[in-house]
């Protein structure tokens, strides 16, 4: 009798633990991973600590920022997949993979390297202005002008919330948040290191994205020419020229764009 009761209690405790874990996971997805405690986030990031530190040092970006972006993009799920073709921890867009020659979006090392390299480029473009760097990472650099308005404030606020927890520093959307001088110097060095190679590597058959477009792109509902650029890696000016688009360069669902 006692064994039966003990077994029943053990099963109940195991079920309770499973329910609690599931509830925590559901909360992270519903409310946003950035709302989890600092200890919880640090624990999730620990599995990728060496990869993040190496990529951050190589590209002159704060490791806390890389972790914050991963928090909001995938909640540290290496197999995460977005509806627009984003993949992996940092949810790399197909065009970003093409731009930095990332062959496997689900490979943690490649994914973190590609996303951090892009953050390094954005850090240089926006002179270390964190809110606009983050905004451009999400919306595309074509939509975010240096010193201009930030249309995706909700996303930026989430990343800033996570960044504060990782860095221990207060960071908000309205603050004059700049990268440290040391980081800025590192970015210039990283830029010089990669200046001799093209920013956009040639598209090869080895790239695993089935949705990487070779010759044409079928416009989806809600697409803008900037979204087409993000999806294909083809610069806006080239898209405009190839498809004879007239200002304001409106494109419609179902339209087929030439890419080369």
TrEMBL record:
TM segments? none
Is the keyword Zinc assigned to this protein?
A: no
Gene3D superfamilies linked = 1.10.530.10, LysM domain
CDD domains in the record:
LT_Slt70-like, LysM
Instruction: Give the keywords, sorted.
Output: Signal
Organism superkingdom: Bacteria
Please state every residue range assigned to the domain named LysM: 215-259
Q: Which residues form the signal peptide?
A: 1-30
**Key word Electron transport present:** no
UniProt family annotation: Belongs to the transglycosylase Slt family.
Name used for this protein in its record? Transglycosylase SLT domain-containing protein
């Amino acid at each position: 009798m006692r064994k039966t009761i003990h077994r029943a209690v053990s099963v109940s405790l195991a079920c309770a633990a499973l329910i609690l874990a599931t509830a925590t996971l559901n909360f992270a997805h519903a409310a946003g991973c950035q709302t989890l405690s600092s200890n919880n986030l640090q624990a999730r990031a620990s599995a990728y600590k060496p990869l993040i530190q190496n990529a951050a040092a190589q590209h002159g970006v704060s490791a806390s920022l890389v972790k914050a972006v991963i928090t909001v993009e995938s909640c540290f799920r290496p197999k995460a997949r977005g509806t627009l073709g984003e993949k992996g921890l940092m949810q790399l867009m197909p065009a970003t993979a093409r731009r930095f020659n990332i062959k496997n979006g689900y490979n943690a090392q490649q994914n973190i390297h590609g996303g951090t390299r892009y953050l390094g480029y954005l850090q240089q473009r926006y002179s270390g202005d964190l809110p606009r760097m983050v905004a451009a990472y999400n919306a595309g650099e074509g939509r975010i002008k240096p010193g201009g308005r930030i249309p995706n404030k909700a996303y930026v606020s989430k990343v800033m919330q996570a960044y504060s927890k990782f860095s221990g520093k207060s960071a908000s959307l309205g603050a004059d948040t700049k990268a440290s001088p040391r980081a800025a110097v590192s970015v210039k060095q990283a830029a010089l290191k990669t200046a001799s190679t093209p920013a956009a590597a040639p598209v090869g058959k080895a790239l695993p994205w089935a949705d990487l477009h070779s010759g044409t792109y079928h416009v989806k509902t809600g697409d803008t020419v900037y979204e087409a650029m993000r999806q294909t890696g083809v610069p806006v000016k080239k898209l405009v020229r190839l498809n004879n688009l007239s200002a304001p360069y409106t494109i419609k669902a179902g339209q087929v764009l030439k890419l080369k």
